[in-house]
Automatic annotation (TrEMBL):
Keywords: Signal. This is Fasciclin domain-containing protein. PANTHER family: FI19380P1 (PTHR10900:SF77), PERIOSTIN-RELATED (PTHR10900). Residues 1-22 form the signal peptide. The keyword Signal applies. The lineage of its organism: Bacteria, Pseudomonadati, Pseudomonadota, Gammaproteobacteria, Oceanospirillales. Residues 32-182 form the FAS1 domain. It comes from the Bacteria. SMART domains: FAS1. The keyword Signal applies.
Amino acid sequence: MKTTIRATIAAIALSLPMATLADDHRGPKDNYSVVDAALAVNGEGSPFKGSFDTLIALLTEDVPGRADILNALDGKRQYTVFAPTDDAFAALEQTVLTLGYCSLADLDPQVVNTVLLYHVAHGRRDSSDVLGSSRIRMLTGDFLKHKSAVLTDNLMRDAELIPGALDVEADNGIIHAIKAVVLPILPDPGPGGCS
């Protein structure tokens, strides 16, 4: 039976109580970080409640290098985060299955770290800055190309910016929601054997 990305990430998310997550990863009281903003957008009272469970679960997964990414996003430096929705990660499932992996959890954690870093740029770029740019350098050193509110990754896959989910402000940056997961690389083929 196929293990879906959604089921795998749901299991990870269930193992991390959101109240604890919010308490453990909040920046200093004087710093409302992009992590805090992501938790707020995903939480009660938000029109996007529960839309970023997968991203939050991946960021908080206990694997090598992930805490460094989370701590950076919870710090004082300015970042722009392009946040894929849960639907974006679910759509990535077909690519993962095609490559011979049974779920996103089967990918090498360093590959997932690279993918996560490819969603973050140095500096604070509001939507007018993003829309005015033809390309944006990401933390991986690679670029996302931009044209008409659509980002294009290294594999020529498109991710539309989501109107109404742009310019989510934090003290140390800004978040823009996107409709697809952008990929800097195509992971090596997996072992297969998924049934």
